[in-house]
Amino acid sequence: MAGRRRRGPRVLPSALRPAPGEPAIHDLASRIRRLGPSCGPVRLVGVDGHAGSGKSTFAGRLAGALDGAPVLRLDDVASHEELFDWTGRLLRQVIRPLGRGETAHCSAYDWRTRRFGPPRPLPPAPVILVEGVGAGRRALRPYLALLLWMDLPREESWARGRARDGEEQREFWEGWVRAEREHFAGDPTRPFADLLVRQRGEGYEVLPGPAGTAEPPPSITLGDGP
Known about the structure:
By secondary structure, this protein is α/β, with parallel strands linked by helices. It has a single domain, classed as Rossmann fold. Helix content is 31%, strand content 21%. It has six helices and eight strands. The protein has helices spanning 23-34, 55-65, 74-77, 87-99, 154-165, 170-186; strands at 43-48, 71-73, 104-110, 115-122, 127-131, 144-150, 195-200, 203-208. The strands form two sheets. The protein has a six-stranded mixed beta sheet with strand order 2-5-1-6-7-8. The protein has a two-stranded antiparallel ribbon with strand order 3-4. The longest helix has 17 residues, at 170-186. The radius of gyration is 16 Å and the shape is globular. The two termini are 17 Å apart.
């Protein structure tokens, strides 16, 4: 978000892949593989939370355990003009094609040049992670096999995000915070999360979410990286 330049759906680098000695994250990946497809042949997994809550890092670790599952960044879908009003475009470009078993084509927004790039292909895969603020909005929940919420208070998340993006993004953050407050006030995600993800020291703890789950979640401990 903010000043970070995105390049469209991609496989996460090997540096984010969990080591073989991190069984808990592999247990979570195994659980996801056991889920039924939720969008055509695809298991869509939403990773939502406040800006700055650590969604990208967690999604990267999980994608690594899923053999490099694609990660669709909602930073690529949003824009300065449409911070949250992108649902229709995401449904047309990504959700509906995947639901038909077809390759989706998503144009990634460049936050520096303020324009969308050429469409990039996103073929159906066994699992695709959808990561970003709003990944669990009501229009997307029917297509999700699992919804994760990064359970960090919003003020702490925003403070982390501001520190990450620096002073040059101060004005953007002021507008973003207002927009995020408005979004979650009208379309909250946390009450519908299957699992809550909390960062604990060098790892994570995964707890049952308000929506409840049929299978007790594994406890996760893994390095968070830089």
